[in-house]
């Protein structure tokens, strides 16, 4: 390509772009003035307001052909605060702030930014509530405000935004209840907040990822419409009680964390195996009683320790360990009376099986059990806690 042709091309390309709109230039100046690079960071070194065309030289900036800012990506490693002038950038579709130490509230006026599709302001030190103006973000697809110090009630309008697919508010101080969810979400992560109350009666069937871990939610989980796309569910470390409904055991599930609640039973209908092979299921540290259903046999890792399970462990679990489907099986700290082990069998080396602190009369577990270090010394439960379970004609 000849040099003159290249110049011609360059001037053509250039002439199709107008220079940055004066309102947007003023907004960028205020945004710049309220933030600073932390020591060692040079994000703003390219932000020279004397150049004719910031759109082609400022890092983190994208503009439309009409000279309006459409994308703003700030940081990482900035401090200061977010200028309310962001709301002047009325053509903004994407607002991203990478991890840093930015403090202060969210800008209040999001109602002037109707084109926003992505807001991601994670791992900074933002405080205060989510402004009511977020309710007008009808094009919003992704909202990630995780790992800040935001607070206030979880706004009910967030989970009704008509195009919201990804909502991540993990690790903030949001309180109050989770209201009905009507957005077409596929990713909902509210872990590590102070959310209370019960689960909403339904979730969108589009949901693939749900985490509500480490909140203060309670009550029973009513049988909900099966979430046929669900891959990951984490309700651990709340105060849920009652039965774990069989609708949670979706055939698509790969990770199910329900540990450290107060669930009392597993409602498994008549299905034999509810779990796909390779799944990880943690139901430990609950109050689950009764006999163990064979329905969880497909899991690759199954944690049922620290419950009140009784009776014989179904043979299916032994088969599943031997044929390599199950690689980790933690049954310690229950009241099981028998592990159906035949001395001719051999466990694969990779298996981790823990049977300590149960009520097994004859003890096949010595030599089989490979418990985590903290439970190893407690081989069996004191006989006084077990006597009622030895009598098979009585359920105690
Ligand atoms: C940001 O800060 C972190 C922690 O000090 C550092 O590891 C990282 O390299 C910094 N990144 C940039 C782009 O300055
Ligand atoms: C767990 O639930 C049982 C029965 O509903 C109740 O008696 C018990 O107090 C609960 N435990 C905790 C720690 O909430
Ligand atoms: C459970 O049993 C009912 C009635 O016998 C039957 O209609 C249903 O399909 C069964 N469900 C499963 C998952 O096997
Ligand atoms: C392993 O054993 C379990 C329990 O009997 C069974 O459900 C599963 O289909 C078996 N898997 C293979 C690969 O043989
Ligand atoms: C076992 O159950 C039988 C019948 O219910 C009863 O007569 C007996 O006293 C029970 N024994 C113990 C040790 O609980």
TrEMBL record:
Gene Ontology cellular component annotations, sorted alphabetically: membrane
Gene3D superfamilies named in the record: Ribonuclease Inhibitor (3.80.10.10)
Signal peptide coordinates: 1-18
Principal subcellular localization: membrane
Protein name: Leucine-rich repeat-containing N-terminal plant-type domain-containing protein
Domain of life assignment: Eukaryota
Membrane topology: Single-pass type I membrane protein
InterPro entries cross-referenced by the UniProt entry: Leu-rich_rpt, LRR_dom_sf, LRR_N_plant-typ, RLP29
Cellular compartment(s): Membrane
Organism: Arabidopsis thaliana (Mouse-ear cress)
Domain Leucine-rich repeat-containing N-terminal plant-type: 22-64
């Amino acid at each position: 390509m000849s040099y003159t042709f290249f110049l011609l091309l360059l001037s053509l390309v250039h002439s199709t772009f107008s220079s940055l709109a004066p309102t947007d230039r003023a907004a960028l100046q205020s945004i710049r003035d309220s933030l600073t690079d932390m020591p060692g960071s040079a994000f703003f070194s390219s932000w020279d307001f004397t150049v004719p065309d910031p759109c082609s030289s400022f890092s983190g900036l994208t503009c439309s052909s009409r000279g309006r800012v459409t994308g703003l990506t700030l940081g990482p490693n900035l401090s200061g605060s977010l200028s309310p002038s962001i709301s002047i950038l009325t053509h903004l579709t994407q607002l991203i702030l990478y991890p840093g130490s930015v403090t202060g509230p969210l800008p209040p006026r999001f109602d002037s930014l109707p084109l926003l599709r992505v807001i991601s302001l994670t791992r900074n030190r933002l405080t205060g509530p989510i402004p009511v103006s977020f309710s007008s973000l009808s094009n919003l697809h992704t909202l990630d405000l995780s790992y800040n110090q935001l607070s206030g009630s979880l706004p009910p309008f967030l989970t009704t935004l008509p195009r919201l697919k990804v909502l991540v508010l993990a690790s903030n101080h949001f309180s109050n209840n989770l209201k009905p969810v009507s957005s077409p979400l596929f990713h909902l992560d509210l872990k590590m907040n102070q959310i209370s109350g019960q689960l909403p009666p339904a979730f969108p069937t589009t949901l693939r990822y749900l985490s509500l871990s480490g909140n203060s939610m309670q009550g029973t989980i009513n049988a909900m419409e099966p979430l046929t796309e669900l891959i990951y569910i984490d309700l651990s470390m709340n105060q849920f009680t009652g039965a774990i409904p069989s609708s949670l055991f979706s055939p698509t599930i790969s990770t199910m964390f329900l540990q450290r609640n107060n669930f009392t039973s597993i409602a498994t209908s008549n299905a034999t195996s509810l779990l796909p092979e390779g799944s990880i299921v943690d139901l430990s540290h609950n109050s689950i009683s009764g006999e163990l259903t064979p329905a969880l046999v497909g899991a690759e890792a199954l944690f049922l320790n620290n419950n009140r399970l009784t009776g014989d462990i179904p043979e299916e679990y032994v088969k599943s360990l031997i044929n390599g489907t199950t690689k980790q099986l933690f049954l310690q700290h229950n009241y099981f009376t028998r592990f159906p082990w035949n001395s001719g069998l051999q466990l694969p080396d990779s298996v981790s099986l823990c049977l300590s602190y149960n009520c097994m009369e004859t003890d096949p577990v010595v030599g089989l059990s490979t418990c985590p270090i903290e439970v190893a010394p407690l081989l069996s439960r004191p006989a006084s806690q077990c006597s009622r379970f030895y009598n098979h004609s009585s359920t105690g």
